[in-house]
Design goal:
about 425 residues, alpha/beta, TIM Barrel, Arc Repressor Mutant, subunit A, 9-stranded mixed beta sheet
Length: about 425
């Protein structure tokens, strides 16, 4: 099975080619006009949104490789630094902001006054759309009726709840901070508080998760009338507790056959319940897609604030240092510690291939021709032929779209279509 994780707090799709440490934000982007060689193409599109990384958690989940600290000592200093970074980078965006996403880490740990200050600062520095989608990632154990009311008053209108499973054994295996009872109650409390725009995360393919339990998890989400699901196959990332335990033979490695079964069960049950499988890992009722996530997959621009956060402006991709202490020290000196990669036309095309194929709309051959030329379109059509013949791709209205069978091999198919 070849399904990789891209959730709402993961923003880097490709490895970095040109690291440049501790650049100042005053460095200008290198925009060059489109040509037929390998020069960068300026692909300016409306701004997608702003991502704020809150790098703090109560405890470390065994599978997680996101940047965070379990020490809360520097939370006040970090929040001030993020506000300062927002000020330093206010000119990165010249379009209205349609989405804000608080990810981490665990942003639901923040005091309401601190969260409100972050939102107010962003409203002060950037032009937000009146109906901007403002998402807060929240862990079930942080959710109370009082907090929900405060979040709503502060402007949060969408919750992303890290459920992962409704079974105690699964949660304990993952080293999650919440219980199965809290998982269920957090959703009910959010709905009672008037939050109808809710997504939950679920993980499949873990050693403790049987097929029957996975069916129960999906059916529980459906019965609760959750309008959006983000479901991820368990992955083993270097430097995680899970990786070390598998390496030391204290835990079995991932069962790829089980993951394939779980993915197929997920597609069948979600589809039967009226969910659109609009991206490999994401399912939504009609009209309830994540606006923030969708912008990433559509190649729109976004600004990332905080340590390890990524930004993209159509021509370059940059990412802040994944070190809280160094981030704070640099921001104190009004310097943003980031590395940057300037994207060639070929890299931009390959990113489009990767992201578009993951969506239900697929890869537009017309868009490829208009943006990268007829030669690249013809090469992609030629390379796609074997997948069309094998039934893993289909051609719909001049779009290459993964079939249900092809979704099991999304990454491999995309890589095979990459241009040199």
């Amino acid at each position: 099975m070849c399904v990789f994780r891209t959730d709402e707090s993961t923003h880097s799709l490709f490895s970095c080619k040109q690291p440049i440490a501790h650049l100042r934000e005053t460095e200008k982007n290198r925009n060059t006009p489109k040509n037929n060689n390998n020069a960068t193409i300026s692909t300016f599109v409306p701004m997608a949104g702003i991502y704020i990384h809150i790098p703090f958690c109560k405890k470390a989940c065994h599978y997680c490789n996101f940047h965070f600290s379990t020490s809360s000592n520097n939370i006040p200093a970090m929040l001030q630094a993020i506000c300062t970074e927002a000020l330093l980078r206010k000119d990165y965006i010249n379009e209205k902001v349609s989405t804000i996403y608080f990810g981490g880490g665990t942003p639901s740990l923040l005091k309401i006054a601190d969260l409100r200050l972050q939102i107010e600062k962003l409203r002060e520095l950037f032009a937000l759309e009146d109906n901007a989608e403002i998402t807060l990632e929240a862990n079930p154990d942080d959710i109370t009726a009082e907090k929900l009311a405060e979040w709503k008053m502060a402007g949060i209108n969408r919750l992303s709840i890290g459920i992962q499973s409704f079974f105690e054994e699964d949660l304990q295996w993952m080293n999650r901070a919440h219980s199965a009872e809290q998982a269920l109650q957090s959703i009910l409390l959010a709905q009672e508080a008037g939050f109808d725009n809710i997504t939950i995360d679920l993980i499949y393919g873990t050693p403790t998760l049987t097929d029957e339990r996975w069916v129960h998890n999906i059916q529980t989400a459906i019965s609760l009338k959750i309008p959006h699901l983000s479901c991820y196959a368990l992955t083993v990332e270097p430097k995680t507790v899970l990786y070390k335990m598998i390496e030391q033979h204290k835990m079995p490695n991932i069962d790829s056959e089980k993951q394939s079964r779980h993915f197929e069960i997920l597609m069948q049950l979600a589809g039967a319940a009226g969910f659109e499988h609009y991206e490999i890992s994401n399912f939504a009722k009609p009209g309830r897609r994540s606006r923030h996530n969708s912008s990433y997959w559509q190649g729109k621009q976004y600004l990332g604030l905080g340590p390890s956060a990524h930004s993209y402006n159509g021509n370059s991709r940059q990412w802040n240092i994944s070190n809280n202490a160094l981030y704070l020290k640099s921001i104190e000196q009004n310097t943003i510690p980031f590395e940057i990669e300037y994207l060639t036309a070929t890299q931009q095309l390959n990113e489009y291939i990767m992201t578009s194929l993951r969506t239900m709309e697929g890869l537009s051959l017309y868009h490829v021709r208009q943006t990268w030329g007829a030669k690249n379109k013809e090469q992609i059509e030629k390379d796609a032929r074997k997948f069309l013949d094998a039934g893993t791709l289909e051609l719909k209205n001049d779009h290459l779209v993964l079939t249900p069978k092809g979704k099991f091999f999304a990454d491999g198919i995309a890589a095979a279509l990459f241009t040199a």
